[in-house]
Amino acid sequence: MSIKLATLAEKTFSRIEHGDGDLELNGAAGLDIAERGEVTFLANPKYTPQVKETRASAIFLNETEKIERTDIAVLRTKDPYLAYTRALRLFFPEPKFNSFVHPLSSIDESAEVAADVSVDAFVSIGKNCVVESGVKIFPNVTIYDDVKIGRNSVIHSNVSVRENCEIGENCIVHNNATIGSDGFGYAKDENKSWLKIPQTGKVVIEDRVEIGANTAIDCASVGETRIKSGAKIDNLVQIGHSCTIEEDALVCAQTGLAGSSIIGKRVILAGQVGIAGHLRVGDDAVITAKSATSHDVENGKIISGIPAFDNRDWLRSIAAFRRLGEIARAIRDLEKRLFKLEKK
Length: 344
Hints:
- The chain is of the alpha/beta class.
- It folds into three domains: 3-91, Udp-n-acetylmuramoylalanyl-d-glutamate--2,6- Diaminopimelate Ligase, Chain: A, domain 1; 100-310, UDP N-Acetylglucosamine Acyltransferase, domain 1, CATH 2.160.10; 313-343.
- The chain has four helices and 40 strands.
- It has a twelve-stranded mixed sheet with strand order 8-11-14-17-20-25-28-31-34-37-39-40, covered by helices on one side.
- A hairpin with a 5-residue loop joins strand 22 (186-188) and strand 23 (194-196).
- It is flat.
């Protein structure tokens, strides 16, 4: 696919500072691997030296970044990374698929499946399910009874969608994810044995949600677990029963949420974050990697550590921690000097 520089600038909300608008571009790549005919970008100052060596024909730069080269077209934009992402989407549009139901799929006669869907081999669709227009279901997907899947969603191989769950429009569920598995709920009986609590609720996935491979989202004991519109969930994430993840939250790999927690709008949970149960993480908060919290987090707060606290305080604490040996030696030296003074 070939796109002229002028068209690329228009589609990525950029302006041409230098270069021929008729220049043909056929791809996008990072500074270190881009070839002639491709566009690249600079967003992190760490990679500035690579600008001198890149073989790309065009580059997205912010409004202030200087460039000495004159042999590369320059596209100015407020956010080079966002412009580059839009360029990638232009060069690599979502693949089209043909409407098709494989003869080796199993669809219950009570299910309502739109005519323009793609259902691959060994897909099982249960009773009273609704599969709307434009849905693509890859091989070996299991969809239990009473499930609804909204328009243009994509369900990759080996996904399981449990009974009564709902998936909205334009969602992507990646391989081996499980939607609606039983919540982890038990009560201790008179003999101190664990009695399983019935898990009768469901999971509701709203529109434009992406769920990574091998992620598990548990249903509620009663009521629902809800993932709201625009949320993005990475691979290997565990979301406990009755949790709510609000609009445009970002949950990175190996994060675990205990039951009944609420993750606010646009929150970022970095890799391997732990969230205790019945907590609220406020809108726009950030919890950095390998951190864990057992308390509510205020809107806009950035926290780190175990237990997590204000990120700036945590950075100062880590700086002090690295000097603990030096501080201990200084204290011992002071004790010796004080002891000598006291003996005089």
